[in-house]
Fold:
Amino acid sequence: MSPVLADLEVGQLVGERTVELDRRALVRYAGASGDLNPIHWNERVAVEVGLPGVIAHGMLTMGTAVGLVGDWAGDPGKVVDYGVRFTRPVPVPDPGVATVEISGVVGAVDAEQGTVRIDLTVTCGGTRVLGKAQALVRL
Amino acid sequence: MGINLEYAGRSYPATAPYTVGREHLRDFARAVGAEHPVHHDVDAARSLGHPDVIAPPTFAVVIAQRAEAQLVEDPDAGIDFTRVVHADERFTHHRPIHAGDELSTVLHVDGIVERAGLAMVTTRCEITAADGAPVSTVRSTLAVRGEGS
Structure:
């Protein structure tokens, strides 16, 4: 069921999630999105361009992070605006996983517009990987 | 060759229509871990008032990047993709994208700014339905490192 705008308070936690990304997840996203940039699956190319190794698509991190917002809203179609800055890469080891921690809080409520802004904190290894990650939800 | 500043302000003709497939939406949703039934189950989507399964909020990047290729893959634009870092991305949805949509995109190069050895290239994709109604606006900034930096 959808949250009710009048019940929301700024700072209120709307969800937390931990996601593990491995190389398979990157290949899956490459295929589903059509973003075939080799820095997301080819260690040699990633190192050649100066990266520590293969990194996750920024768009994969962005797309994964917003899931808890849509689930909380009761319908991901209620997310009317979503923007992020890509502040740090997410290196994905092999073997192993990158662990991404996501949490969302109410950032602002606009009763007139019927919208709530959810501010997302997205970290990997304690470092923020997305900046100013904000989703606007129409309730 | 460096980045071509003359491309700032440029707009492109609308792309040929892109047909949004139901299985593609399901695959994309799985790839970003979006398990909500509205992306997978047609009946669940209809019960929430959608005509068919809907796209996760960032799916529009799939459509936008096809339009952006007109700029990024144009040798005269001078964007060396091995020197590109994605700086930011923003989606504004006028309505959710759903399976069966036929979407056209107009690409605008809103700005190219050079500072401290970096060129910031800001693009905007205006995605519209077959009837011309606005569906999504996708804004993206690429940071392109200059040669020797």
Q: What stands out?
A: The interface with chain B takes residues 19, 25, 28-29, 31-35, 37, 49, 58-60, 62-64, 66-67, 70-71, 75-77, 79-86, 135 of chain A (CB under 8 Å). The radius of gyration of chain A is 16 Å.
